[in-house]
């Protein structure tokens, strides 16, 4: 797979010598990077990506059209492109280009946007954060092994006895979120299967699913996500 160093350099009407001067890389070394005869270290990739205002994966030659979650998260937060531009110090044009994949943020901007939306950078990029998923799974295991569950949120502190099912459900909802799955459809499917396991049918099954779905409001969902994150932080800091 070819990298995009030469493509970006030529697009910006820069010579090897001029680019090397600006990023602090010898002309011959930069030439070898472009031809693939030598592989830059990660910090060099980052330096080049920042200089050309693109992401590291993009300059390395990976697919430029990988869908990110900027637009989805902005719409969920009910923020316009203009307001997002104001709070982040970016331009409307940049936000629009980031959302439609015509331009990739550099790592600093990815982190800035991730902090604003309160998500991880891999999640914002449309990737799966395997490290964070590992923390969720480990926390589920710890909760399942303990009768005493401690949940601390920004608003309150809860020490609940035998509330493991609620805690595990919250953690699973967070996992759905990280995997970019629709929690409503996943929850409904779970309610339907549970109704069958309980031997419910007809109107009883419909009523059960309806009552269970009422509790799955967006407000409750956000509270569950907050509790799940609090659980992970609590067990992670033990």
From TrEMBL:
Top-level taxon of the source organism:
Bacteria
Q: Where is the HTH cro/C1-type domain?
A: 5-59, 70-124
Any Pfam family hit: HTH_3
Keyword list (alphabetical) reads:
DNA-binding
Q: Does the keyword DNA-binding apply?
A: yes
GO molecular function annotations of the record: DNA binding
Protein name (Swiss-Prot/TrEMBL): Putative transcriptional regulator
The species this protein belongs to is Lactobacillus melliventris
